[in-house]
Amino acid sequence: MSDVIAGLDLNRLNRIAGHMEDKYLATGKLPCAVTLVAREGRIVWQQAQGLMDVERGKPAQLDTLFRIYSMTKPITSIALMQLYEQGRFLLDDPVHKYIPAWRDLRVYKSGVYPNFVTTPVQRPMTIRDLLTHQSGLTYGFSCQTNVDAAYRQLKLDGHMGLTLEKLVEELAHLPLEFSPGTAWKYSVATDVCGYLVQLLSGLPLDEYFSRYILGPLGMQDTFFTVPQDKLERFAACYEYQSGDRFRLQDDPQTSHFTREHGFLSGGGGLISTIGDYYRFTQALANGGELDGARIIGRKTLEFMRLNHLPGGTDLPRVSAGGFSETPYEGSGFGLGFAVKVDIAKSQTISSPGEYGWGGKAGTTFFIDPVEDLQVIFMTQLSPSSSYMVRQELRAMVYGALV
After folding, report:
1. Are residues 157 and 139 in contact, defined by beta-carbon separation less than 8 angstroms?
2. Can the keyword Coiled coil be found in this entry's annotation (predicted)?
């Protein structure tokens, strides 16, 4: 039994390394794979494989810096809920209470930008709508509707020159995809949450994160801009090409993440390491605290982990968009996380109440409170839907529980 730690069989966990090498790395499907499995408050298995920078032949390391993209969202959601705990707002507050220009938001009916035909919203958008992606906002990269085409035309997906203020200002003039609370759609809503954090705290988002989340948790390798002295550890990012190949999409030497760029994206702007992000997930797994630093109250986190979709349904019943960082079936959505509500329906091994999220370059994490289990995976291949590696990893990890 010496090969079992915290109820996990190490020989079975070692299958992960072989699987990643044989199926994804040796075949040129993924540049790298960095994996961490933790249980009962400690790291049981972790490994860095492949190349963090294929062009320069640099091997991935456990301290490699990754673009975590939408894994920024849970951090932003915690930040906003910290302010909720201080009585700064209520979840059913209309967003226009804090962003007056949003008082008269309308819903798309027909037409193309700038000649939209719209109808009034059935009710005002609330802060909870933002946290749960039930706001009616969208993403330009969705490429599904005339509204997201307007987002692309106005460059609202984090292009150079965009600021949070500019984003919020432009969104005031665009229609929503649907009336708030009537459907679910992945969107820039979490960037708006980041704007509200700035507004309510009086601090820029990067400074707020540092002071109230990253600093207290000792996350010294998580930031919006990679410092010069850490550039050597910054991975290249790749883009999927047909035929199971990839091409360089963002060179670490010239990346906009290496210089101040003005857009502090609470929806997708952070760089981190697997070890740093583990400090965040371990704080959540502990009920909001790590090494004496509490970032969120236990009951607040319990509330965030509930399924907040109408009637306790799952995403396929209410989704208005085709994209998500989690399989739809059997998943609900809380305040900043996907939440497993029907395990059999999800067709992946899990426990009720498991929560987590991923990023567009293939990074992901989940926390299983029933098994006291955490898994974090880092790579840099966009889009995240290129391969089913997340589901395969899940099967191998749960298969190692004894």
Report:
1. yes
2. no
